Target: Fimbria/pilus outer membrane usher protein
Amino acid sequence: MANAANNEAPRGSLPGEPSSSRPTEPLSVAATLPLNPTGRAIDLTVPVLDGTRYMGDIELRLMPDDEIRLPAQRLLDLVVVSAKPDLAAKLRTMLAAQATIGLDALAPLGIRMRYDPQKIALVLDIPAELEAQRTIQVASLGVETVGGFARPAGFSAYLTMRGAVDYVEAGTNRGLGTPSMFLDGAARLAGVVFETQGVFQPGGNGPALQRQGSRFVYDDQDRLIRWTAGDLRTVARGFQYAPDIAGISILRSYSALQPQTITRPTGRQSFRLDQPSTVEIWVNDQLVRRTRLDPGSYDLRDFPYTQGIDNARITIRGDGGRVETLNFSLFSDQSQLAAGLSEFGLYAGVKAPPGRSGPVYSSEPVITGFYRRGLSERLTLGGNLQADRHSRMIGVESILATPIGAFGMNLAASQIDGRGAGGAALFTFRSLIQRKDMTSDALDLSAELLSKNFAPSGDVFGQNPFTYRLSGGYSHAFSQAIYAGVDVNYAKGRAGVWDSSAYRMTIGWRPVPRMNFTATTVYEGATRSRRAGLSFLLSLTVQMGKGASLIADYDSGHQTERISYQAQYGQGVGSLNLSGSLERSPHNVGINGSANYITSAGEIGIDQLTSFEGGAGSPTDSRTNLRFATSIAFADGAVSIGRPISDSFAIVSRRENIRHARVELEPGPYGYTAGTTPLGTATQPDLMSYNNRTITIDAPGAPADLDLGPGAFRVFPPYRSGYRLQAGSEYPVTLVGRLLDEEGKPLALLSGLATELAAPEREPLPVFTSSDGRFAVTGLKPGHWRIAFHTDPITVYTVDIPPGKTTGVFKMEDIRPEKADGRP
Model:
């Protein structure tokens, strides 16, 4: 994707103000106080800010005289990322021979550094003219992530289970249906992931367990390459299809990694179902059909509802409960790459189509791959190929960005034994103009040409009923409230196939923010199975409050009316989603309802679908679908049951000091993501690979003095990784008391250090006494502690905190020091 300039105002300045004209900050009372009153050096880990922009963390040393020393190499690593090349070179020369530096070390280069005691941060003021231009990238793979993050578990694993069962009240196959369960599991050790998927259906016609694919995956972050061995998940470009291959592959992609789904795309305009599913077909945001489909491959062009119409959305609800949405368009992928960036994929092995119990491994070799590179900020070029024993295909692609829009081209040539050679071409143009007054224009044009004998490699029996397809669309937003669009689509038939044409005009109106009305007129030309005709699609959407909406649709072409309602109550754990619809056509009346409820341990739902033929009498088809989804996860010894996991996860367990408290993850005003179950753990199920995430925790019903520990954890998950995070504190005890000297008098106004005798390497805790010898020190745990004061001679106290004390305050009165021989 092309880089975009960062138009952020210079840090520390107002918009439009030069970076060099920053006002002098007034001194506060806090600024006049000493930073370090302890009399000893203190090491602090603090964030580094360029104005307000976070750059990373650094460990600084605060000296007794308030001087601040910084590690030179760490500071260099943080600054050079934002510096111009000449400034970066000067920094390396200046700091090369220094271990630590002071706050004024970079002043000769025009960089001001200061410590902000209120933010507890190191603030840098780098003049804008010294900073390199910052860019925004779609993906962060391969970019070094700075800052403190929790470490992933050394070994982690999970298994997600989505189960469902039908009960048919009316229609064919009455009674309780065969239960089915979709399984998705992964285990990660030493950076290598083993993942597998399958369908468990006891009592069905075939084997009880059908394995859908298993593979080993390793991500080389230094080279941005994903290595895979096993049942491959191929990626297609241009006119390619995605074959089922068992073998090895390498892939570089800057897009987000997709979680395992119940469907696998097999080309630009086809999809495959791995289990029986309820499928909804949306065309240009209008629901045109809801149907049940058996496992198999489906071509979008097979649906007469979508001939000549370019935008379609398929919503698939598998019997395992997983919902997936596929978006199709006649246009190819218009993603650009910045200059110098490249994406590629190479998959090689043998054909392994799905069988009754799992992939069927053949001896037929197959190879497929693609390569794309950004030659400049405007031009991206690429090529692709596929081959097996009986067919070959090669293709090229290009995307050219110009001031008037983006031009795309895909060319391909195929050679199939017994069928001959063929060719295909796709040309596209896209233009989007957005204005400050909230108006915009969008123009999409495409032309696709297919020779009679062209087919992707492996598609020996495919047919090309159309010689070419032409499509064009234009839309204009007059304001935030009114928009309109027009589409023209035409396909030229061959070998007795009739031409196909469709013309559409849409008008949208939002009279108030909570209401949206659309009206679409569609004219479809005559085909062998359909007369030419004009139809209308009307839709009204009303937002009825927070999380609730009412939708009314009318389709004159199919003579259907539909009214539906959906509502969301709460978010996260305890939330309930309800939906229902009433649909009428000349031959059928359908009543559908759905409810979904979320718990910390999983999700449960129920669907009811009932249809009445002729609109009266007993239902001709009625079924109830019960479903559930849950997961069991393991990370470095911790086990948890939670909601479904599709990529990475975190298990939050409780330390001893909060073992009786209920911990909630990511609490908010409307709910929380997960809470501790009877296992004593909670699962954060929705972490995405290579995306920063902060997991917050709370224990709302716990006592006010309960120490929850850090309260938040920052994670940057690798692919399908797990974390073990611990809520609470290992050192939750606050010790209070009064210290006496050898003569029984209060040890007044002195400072000392408390050291854990079992862990002398830990940082000692500062202790201060009042005028009557009283003190309080936080951050202790049960065990033996030594408190020493720098008197002459040294005054030493030994304190024992009992094992049963795991939280709160531990009080001791009149503690006397040890004698010179070590006795109290």
